[in-house]
Each structure stands twice: as structure tokens, then as C-alpha cells.
């Protein structure tokens, strides 16, 4: 049943029709727990609340269904407005983005130009931008563009997914760049030809890439709610004398709040991924696919 539900939500997340309906009816049925709102101001207030108890953030203006150059330019403009709002409000937050929202599926040149505009703005504000990794079809081109951007910008990082077979080699290839990486397990449905199908294999590969990137001396964001992975990381950095300034834990807005606060009390940096915007449906479906407990939360809200 869990697998059936996971596949169903992953498929719904890619549906253009379902996405249009979600935009029409707004943040209902529990989505507001995981999405900070539809406006920049709502997201800034959410980050301000996180900052008050010691957590930092990364804001993401949600947008995955971009089919025209005009929409891609609008999405880039929203990223720039978000960076401006972070700077003017004084909240502690980076920016995360998906390159498909900037026109990657329309034109590589369009996407790169949008990325450079955003990175120029971030550099002006002394801020940092994280490129979210998407499905396997976008993996290679995302890494290629990241390498191109790193020739000019040092305020950009990218995400690496533990469930892909290629990931260990990607970590090695990015070493020369001194890449700032967010390491995740991976949330997209992929073929067993390119990704580990078993959770245990993903977990083991995740531990290996955490070890590898930390030992190479590069900044590492460990993005997981898995307490076993978090405990493993804490023990590993302690036994290998890795400075606390070299890594951070990252978690999603609305998930494992108590764990986030506990890690802050222990002295670790915790960054919360805070999504906002009207194009929230695909993101929400992936959160439901990841954890059955999220589904029951939504169902309870519907009956209320």
C-alpha cells in the first residue's frame, strides 16, 4: 500500500492538470504545513520565526511547470525579488531554485542567462544560491551548467542525490571545484537502471558520500530527517575532528520541528528549506510520497 501511494503521489506531482487545479483552489488540505505561503512577505515572516529560535533558512520560490520564455523570465524575476526581500528584511536565508523553472527545458542559453542574473544579484547582497537537483533526465545538464557557473561565481552550490548509481563519481568529479554540496537521498521516481531501488542501499551510499565530501574538506549540507543518518554524521565528524563550521543539517519546513530545535540547542547549524509560491503542487506531492505520516496529516485536515 505504501508503494502504491508513493507512486500515485509522484505521478500526480507531474500532472499539469492537477497543478492547474491546485493553483485555482489554493493551499488547502494541509499543504500550508509544508509551504510557507503564496507571497514573498509570507515566506519572509516564516523565516523570521525560524531565525528567532536559532535556525537559518533557504527560500525557494516554487515553480516547475514552465513552458515559455516569458514564464522563465518571470520566475527569474521572482528569485531576484526574493533575494532583495531577504536583504531588505535582514532575515538569515539563502535562496534555492530549480533550473527547469528558469527555462532549462526551453533553452540552455535562456537558463544560464537567468542564472547569471540571479547570481549577480545574490553576489551584490553577499548571499548564496543553491541549485536543486531534479530528476535523472536533468542531472547531467544541471551539473554541466553548475561547472560553467563556477568559472565565474563562488556563491553557488548544487544538490547531489544518494540514490543514483553515478553519485560517487560525481562527488569525485566536483572535488576540483571545491563544491558546496547539499547531499540528499533523492525524492524522484527513477528507473532501477540508474538508481538503487532498495532503501538500505540508498542509506549506505548516503553515508559514503557524506564521509567522502567531508573528508575532502568541502562544505557539506546533510539534508535528511532520518535520525540514524543524523546520528551517523555527528559521530563521524566527532571522530574525524571535522570542524562544526564545515557542515550543516538541513530539513524541510514543517517536518521534524522538535528535532530541528534540538540540533540547534546542541550547537549545530540547522537550515530549513522554506518553499513558497502558487506553483506548490508538485513539491507537495513529493512530500506526501516521501512519508506516509504526511498523508494521514492531510486526511485529518480534510475531515476537519
UniProtKB/TrEMBL annotation:
A Pfam family that this protein carries is: Pro_dh
**Enzyme superclass (EC):** oxidoreductase
User: Which reactions are catalysed by this chain?
Assistant: L-proline + a quinone = (S)-1-pyrroline-5-carboxylate + a quinol + H(+)
InterPro entries under this entry? Answer: FAD-linked_oxidoreductase-like (IPR029041), PRODH_bac_arc (IPR008219), Proline_DH_dom (IPR002872), Proline_oxidase (IPR015659)
Q: What is its EC number?
A: 1.5.5.2
Query: Which pathway does the database say it acts in?
Result: Amino-acid degradation; L-proline degradation into L-glutamate; L-glutamate from L-proline: step 1/2
Taxonomically, which superkingdom?
A: Bacteria
The coenzyme or cofactor needed here is: FAD
Q: Does the keyword Oxidoreductase apply?
A: yes
Record's keyword terms, sorted: FAD, Flavoprotein, Nucleotide-binding, Oxidoreductase, Proline metabolism
Q: Where would I find the Proline dehydrogenase domain in this sequence?
A: 45-298
Protein's UniProt keywords contain Aminoacyl-tRNA synthetase: no
Its name, as the record gives it, is proline dehydrogenase
Amino acid at each position: 500500500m505504501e508503494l502504491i501511494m508513493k507512486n500515485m503521489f509522484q505521478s500526480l506531482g507531474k500532472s499539469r492538470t492537477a497543478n492547474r487545479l491546485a493553483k485555482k483552489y489554493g493551499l488547502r488540505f494541509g499543504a500550508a504545513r509544508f509551504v510557507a505561503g503564496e507571497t514573498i512577505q509570507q515566506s519572509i515572516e516564516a523565516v523570521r520565526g525560524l531565525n528567532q529560535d536559532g535556525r537559518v533558512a533557504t527560500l525557494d520560490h516554487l515553480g516547475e511547470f514552465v513552458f515559455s520564455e516569458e514564464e522563465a523570465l518571470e520566475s527569474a524575476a521572482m528569485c531576484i525579488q526574493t533575494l532583495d526581500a531577504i536583504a531588505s528584511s535582514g532575515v538569515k536565508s539563502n535562496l534555492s531554485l530549480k533550473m527547469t523553472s528558469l527555462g532549462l527545458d526551453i533553452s540552455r542559453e535562456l537558463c544560464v542567462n537567468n542564472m547569471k542574473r540571479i547570481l549577480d544579484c545574490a553576489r551584490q547582497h553577499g548571499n548564496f544560491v543553491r541549485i536543486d537537483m531534479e530528476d535523472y533526465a536533468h542531472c547531467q545538464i544541471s551539473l554541466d551548467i553548475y561547472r560553467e557557473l563556477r568559472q565565474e561565481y563562488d556563491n553557488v552550490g548544487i544538490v547531489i542525490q544518494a540514490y543514483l548509481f553515478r553519485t560517487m563519481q560525481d562527488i569525485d568529479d566536483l572535488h576540483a571545484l571545491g563544491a558546496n554540496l547539499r547531499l540528499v537521498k533523492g525524492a524522484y521516481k527513477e528507473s532501477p537502471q540508474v538508481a538503487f531501488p532498495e532503501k538500505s542501499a540508498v542509506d549506505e551510499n548516503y553515508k559514503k558520500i557524506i564521509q567522502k565530501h567531508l573528508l575532502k574538506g568541502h562544505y557539506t549540507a546533510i539534508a535528511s530527517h532520518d535520525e540514524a543518518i543524523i546520528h551517523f554524521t555527528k559521530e563521524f565528524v566527532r571522530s574525524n575532528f571535522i570542524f562544526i563550521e564545515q557542515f550543516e543539517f538541513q530539513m524541510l519546513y514543517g517536518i521534524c520541528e522538535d528535532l530541528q530545535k534540538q540540533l540547534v540547542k546542541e550547537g549545530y547549524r540547522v537550515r530549513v528549506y522554506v518553499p513558497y509560491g502558487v506553483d506548490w503542487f508538485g513539491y507537495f506531492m513529493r512530500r506526501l510520497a516521501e512519508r506516509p505520516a504526511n498523508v494521514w496529516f492531510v486526511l485529518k485536515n480534510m475531515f476537519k
